């Protein structure tokens, strides 16, 4: 091969090889850039989803002096609401009109009582039993219960005063009113205490048990105050 032919062959070879080398280099650079900018894939996780609870339990409060019981949701009627029984319903339906009559008696005191202590007792009755009636009505409403007791004569409840006795109290003034008020309200409170005490032995609703205990305690104190007034 002559020197001229060798040079021509070398030039032709370079002309073919150089473009191929350039394509390979550019392709490699593009792959490198893509790898650098591509976001990393999130690592796979095997964390299981939180399972839905299957064993729901309800803590049922006990009556005063008793421990709470833990029961399954299926064992408690109306799980999520405070459990109650028919005696709870009866107590609330009876105590509302009972409290209402006490308020009617207390409303008479400011214009009729002579003794400031009688007026003070009447003030305390209005201040406590008015809100208590609201609480009891809300208790019934929250459970879809009516306050009515068809066919029941509320006048037969322990401590309830007759219409005639209420008229006599409204007609009395001064010391006569004080004596009549104390005698009637004492009997009225004794009836409420008996109702509350009975509920404590048979009721299921913790809120009502606490309320009944409060009624029995506070009205016992008021009876003692009123008896002191009569003894003077």
UniProtKB/TrEMBL annotation:
Pfam families: DUF305 (PF03713). Residues 32-82 are annotated as: Disordered. Residues 88-230 form the DUF305 domain. Residues 32-54 have a biased composition (Low complexity). InterPro entries: DUF305_CopM-like, Ferritin-like. This is DUF305 domain-containing protein.
């Amino acid at each position: 091969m002559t020197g001229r032919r060798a040079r021509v062959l070398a030039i032709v070879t370079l002309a073919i090889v150089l473009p191929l080398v350039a394509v390979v280099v550019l392709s490699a650079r593009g792959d490198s850039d893509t790898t650098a900018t591509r976001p990393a894939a999130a690592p796979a996780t095997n964390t299981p989803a939180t399972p839905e609870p299957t064993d729901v339990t309800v803590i049922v409060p006990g009556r005063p002096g008793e421990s709470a019981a833990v029961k399954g949701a299926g064992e408690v009627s109306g799980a999520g609401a405070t459990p109650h029984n028919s005696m709870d319903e009866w107590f609330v339906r009876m105590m509302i009109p009972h409290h209402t009559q006490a308020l009617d008696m207390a409303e008479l005191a400011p214009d009729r009582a002579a003794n400031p202590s009688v007026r003070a007792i009447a003030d305390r009755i209005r201040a406590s039993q008015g809100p208590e009636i609201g609480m009891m009505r809300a208790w019934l409403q929250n459970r879809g219960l009516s306050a009515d007791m068809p066919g029941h004569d509320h006048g037969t409840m322990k401590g309830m005063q007759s219409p005639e006795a209420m008229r006599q109290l409204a007609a009395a003034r001064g010391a006569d009113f004080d004596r009549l008020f104390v005698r009637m309200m004492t009997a009225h409170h004794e009836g409420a205490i008996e109702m509350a005490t009975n509920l404590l032995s048979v009721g299921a609703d913790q809120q009502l048990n606490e309320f009944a205990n409060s009624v029995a305690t506070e009205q016992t104190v008021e009876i003692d105050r009123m008896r002191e007034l009569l003894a003077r």
